[in-house]
Amino acid sequence: MSHIGLEDLGLLAEGRVEPLTRARMCEHLARCRACMASYADAVRYHAAWVARPGAFDPSPDLIAAGISAGESAAPGPRVVLPARAESVAAPRRVALAAAAACAVVAAAILLGAGGGDTLLHPWQRTIPAPIRTALESASAVGFVLPGGERAAASRGPVYRGSPAAENPRLEAALQQCLDRYESGRVGPVETYAAGAGFIATGQLLAARELVNEGLTRYPDDPRLLVLAADVAFRMSQLGRSEELLRKALRARPDDPIAALDLGLVLADQGRAAEARREWLAVIAARPGTPLADRAGRELARLR
Asked: By residue range, what is the domain housing residue 72?
């Protein structure tokens, strides 16, 4: 099999797979980084639900607000809040959402990447701190995302505390981004922040919808293209992910984040020589940076 389906990963996390099928799936997980990351988060979310089932119940106020907003005929960005209510509507969907969301879903607080806000680009400082933390946590274990570069080469434990779905600061930060998005004050940074918040809270389908909507307004924004590529990668759409990353590199040929992530996609497709070229280019262009360190680690793993 090329990749394990999301529903099968959820069933495996719940212990509902027959022994022979489980053995084949575990053999695949042992050699597939993408599926193993998704399975690890499915296990985390299933364990979290077993411990506190009520934490995943939909909020009546949130559902009412989403329905009300969805019925509005006012012009402006389309409201995507109902996707949140749908994603937590039944406990059975907890493991499936986690399997789709990969490493960032379970991120609550990054152990620490060093440096303060003075090291951030101006656009990054406009993103709420909890979402920046989630971006860094994601970048330490999967795709490197714009705004999370400082943690690209993190070697320590990535997660600490409760899963992201139980992190009220992260939920509040996402709501803040959505309020700005739905008010019409929308730029590529606001769209990126809201999309990253959706990924961090396990709402992969909502993230895809919002980011694709943003790309209709800003089709060449490298940040949105990388985020959309990350969503596609998490959903095992490797061809789509590669297409988006190559478009990001056409828009900004010297973008080391897009190049590093393209190497990850190529390596996952078994195209080792092409992946190696991308990572060597990152090392040459950004020596001594976390991005170069991460590219070097990927090269060593490839060998």
From this structure: 6-236
